[in-house]
């Protein structure tokens, strides 16, 4: 049962990796957290792993590439809690690691469907619930690989990661962040993109150097901003990133 004092959050792609760690950290802060995943069984297993820590979350099936799934999830939220305080658009895929000259249209479609159209569709459907909430916070989990400015620097540490589909999808997600923040000015929303850093997840074959727990802390910081917090920014552990 939700109380007026309990904020409600939904995290997409939350059955593993950074998403699972974000869910755990928000639950530990007293949020009612909907653990959204494409696969119900994996969602149930993720819920069980968090419950072993003495925390309670609510698994919910949500495939960000499926309009019916998004609509069903929105309907359940409306019925159970009636509002949403925090949306973390975390779900995403890497796609085929192809440079610009070799990237085919199908790879672009698949990556953009999950990494751009998915967050846009989820946000659009859940916006009425966010407007009914008190905290009105949206975090889009992005990447420094989406920064055109950083890619233009020859000494950028990740310059060799020149993958058209993934990198440009995060650039597009950043654009969505800026434009949505601008649209929602005056409604007390906080809409930000956050780079959790090069984290050991299955997205990169667990080659990342950062733990999912630390990555989740960075995202959770911007998911729990108060009313005076920034909006329309692109943030990382050390502060703002260039677009």
From TrEMBL:
SUPFAM superfamilies: NAD(P)-binding Rossmann-fold domains (SSF51735). The keyword NADP applies. One of its GO terms (molecular function) is oxidoreductase activity, acting on the CH-OH group of donors, NAD or NADP as acceptor. Pfam families: adh_short. The keyword Metal-binding does not apply. InterPro entries: CBR1-like (IPR045313), NAD(P)-bd_dom_sf (IPR036291), SDR_fam (IPR002347). It comes from the Bacteria. Keywords: NADP, Oxidoreductase. Gene3D superfamilies: NAD(P)-binding Rossmann-like Domain (3.40.50.720). Belongs to the short-chain dehydrogenases/reductases (SDR) family. This is 3-oxoacyl-ACP reductase.
């Amino acid at each position: 049962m939700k109380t007026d004092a309990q904020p409600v959050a939904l995290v997409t792609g939350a059955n593993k990796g950074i998403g699972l760690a974000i869910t755990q950290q928000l639950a530990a802060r007293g949020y009612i957290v909907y653990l959204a995943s494409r696969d119900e069984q994996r969602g149930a297993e993720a819920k069980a792993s968090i419950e072993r820590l003495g925390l309670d979350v609510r698994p919910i099936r949500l495939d960000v590439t499926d309009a019916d799934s998004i609509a069903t999830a929105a309907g359940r939220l409306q019925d159970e809690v009636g509002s949403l305080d925090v949306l973390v658009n975390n779900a995403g895929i890497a796609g085929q690691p192809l440079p610009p000259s070799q990237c085919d249209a199908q790879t672009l479609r698949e990556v953009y469907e999950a990494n751009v159209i998915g967050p846009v569709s989820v946000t659009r459907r859940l916006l009425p619930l966010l407007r009914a909430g008190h905290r009105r916070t949206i975090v889009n989990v992005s990447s420094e690989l989406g920064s055109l400015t950083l890619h233009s620097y020859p000494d950028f540490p990740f310059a060799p990661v020149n993958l058209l589909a993934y990198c440009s999808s995060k650039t597009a997600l950043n654009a969505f962040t800026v434009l949505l923040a601008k649209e929602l000015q005056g409604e007390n929303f906080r809409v930000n993109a956050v780079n959790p850093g090069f984290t050991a997840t299955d997205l990169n074959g667990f080659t990342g150097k950062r733990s999912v727990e630390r990555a989740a802390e960075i995202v959770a910081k911007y998911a729990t901003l108060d009313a005076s917090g920034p909006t329309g920014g692109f943030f990382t552990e050390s502060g703002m990133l260039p677009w």
